[in-house]
């Protein structure tokens, strides 16, 4: 849909050129689209299958909505194990193998979060596990730097990570 893109050819705000009313209409349409995208992602996160279904009845294309990390509502539902929301999204044609910006599929997220019922649901609809397969949910050991022409040494046994947080995936 062209309403999802921001073109550079429209008149500047406040200009007197013809088409400024069209630009205003396009801006309103884009704003409404962003709002609906946020809503479906929010309702998927909140496990509100009825609200998700209502939004999809109004606009079926929202089933493929994406957030800033390229995650779909099905990614969100899969991560949390919201079966009813996932079934609704799949009924409306959600891509069970959609990949986010890290190339993770909804199945990889469900596996990482150990949502066994979700794993079975996604597999039964052709879901494949691409990406990090949930490894971003577990701590990873960080190897010490190699003593390559260093005038210092780090003894890993002296490091205390007990109060540290994992940043990123």
Keywords:
disordered N terminus, Ankyrin_rpt-contain_sf, Serine Threonine Protein Phosphatase 5, Tetratricopeptide repeat, 6 helices, extended, mainly alpha, single chain, repeat
What does this structure look like?
The structure is a single chain. The protein is mainly α and 169 residues long. 41% of the residues lie in helices and 0% in strands. It has helices at 20-45, 49-58, 73-80, 83-91, 106-112, 116-124. Helix 1 (20-45) packs parallel to helix 3 (73-80), helix 2 (49-58) runs parallel beside helix 4 (83-91) and helix 5 packs antiparallel against helix 6.
Order of helices and strands: HHHHHH
Radius of gyration: 22 Å
Our count of domains comes out at 1
Distance, first to last CA = 31 Å
The outline comes out as: extended
Mean pLDDT: 81
CATH superfamily: Ankyrin repeat-containing domain
Do you know the CATH topology? Serine Threonine Protein Phosphatase 5, Tetratricopeptide repeat
Low-confidence stretches: 1-19
Name of the top-level CATH class? Mainly Alpha
Beta-strand residue fraction: under 5%
Number of helices: 6
Largest sheet, in brief, is: none
């Amino acid at each position: 849909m062209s309403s999802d893109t921001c073109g550079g050819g429209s008149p500047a705000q406040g200009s007197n050129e013809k088409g400024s009313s069209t630009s205003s209409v396009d801006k309103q349409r884009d704003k409404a689209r962003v709002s609906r995208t946020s809503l479906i992602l929010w309702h998927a996160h909140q496990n509100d299958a009825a609200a998700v279904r209502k939004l999809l009845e109004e606009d079926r294309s929202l089933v493929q909505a994406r957030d800033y990390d390229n995650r779909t509502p099905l990614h969100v539902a899969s991560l949390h194990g919201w079966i009813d929301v996932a079934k609704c999204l799949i009924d409306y044609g959600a891509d069970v193998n959609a990949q986010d910006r890290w190339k993770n599929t909804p199945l990889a997220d469900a596996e990482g979060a150990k949502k066994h019922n979700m794993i079975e649901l996604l597999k039964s609809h052709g879901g494949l596990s691409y990406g990090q397969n949930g490894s971003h949910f577990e701590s990873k050991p960080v190897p010490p730097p190699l003593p390559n022409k260093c005038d210092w040494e780090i003894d890993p046994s002296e490091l205390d990570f007990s109060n540290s947080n994992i940043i990123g995936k």
